[in-house]
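Justification of resources, computational component.

The compute hours requested in this renewal are based largely on the per-chain cost of generating structure records like the one below. Each record pairs the submitted sequence with a full structure-token output. That output is archived, and it is also reused by downstream analysis tasks.
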Amino acid sequence: MFAQPERLRPELTGPARNTYSYARVQIGKAEEPFTRISRASADRIEVRGRDLAADLMGRLTFTEYFHLLLTGREPTDDERFFLDLLLVAIAEHGFVPSNVAARMTLAADPAFLQGAVAAGILGAGTVILGAAEDCARMLESARLEVEAGESPAAVARAVARRYRDEGRRLPGFGHPLHRPVDPRAERILELVDARGVEGPHLALARSLREAVAETWERPLTLNVSLPIAAVMLDLGYGSAVVKAVPILARTASLLAHLAEEQERPVGFLMAARAEEAVEFRDE
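The structure output for this chain reads:
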């Protein structure tokens, strides 16, 4: 990445007369430029060291391929199972803001499919879709405290009290619709138990559920974002990758909504309902 070019001097002669030469100032630490993901030649596409056509096509599922792209290796059975599970769990949730934004964008320009998908994905923030990343960072920080000698229950209580005292929303808890439980979160925990893959992050997630009920003096819904983060961390994914799952999953859902929008448009109807719902007041 380079900073805004600095204009040096006008060229005085030749075809480039009245143009300017520029100096480029590099921003950030200089790194050796390379990629390990893929390369292509006239007769071969290599992905993570494997021949795409001869080896991967027809053998790997898309979930397995996604894991290979992310990590450079093919998934274990548990990694494939839970990555599939999480993608299915988070892909669709009705007329949430990301789907509404995408439909209204397509209504405005029916030929702009990629723009409509982008409009939906741009809504992947800390409230919608992006909460799993916040959960992952919280769990990683809490795990370090456990590794330093604290019990999971004590760490969970301290985390819950800190968020409560600071008046901050605790990632992974609360939901405007699913009360008292989020069925997606409960199903993930059931399958974790069935396959016996619980690690330190899932143990912390369970401890947090108890600590939150104690701190807030009532149970709060454990929403799907916390188990997604805990499962991915326990399977060895880094916190920076956790957000990739909701983004990939929701892309599939957005494409479904946009296919339906092309057949049975409701984008402008949504815009009209918004006009009706919001009262205008003079200054």
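The longest strand covers residues 6-10. The chain has 13 helices and five strands.
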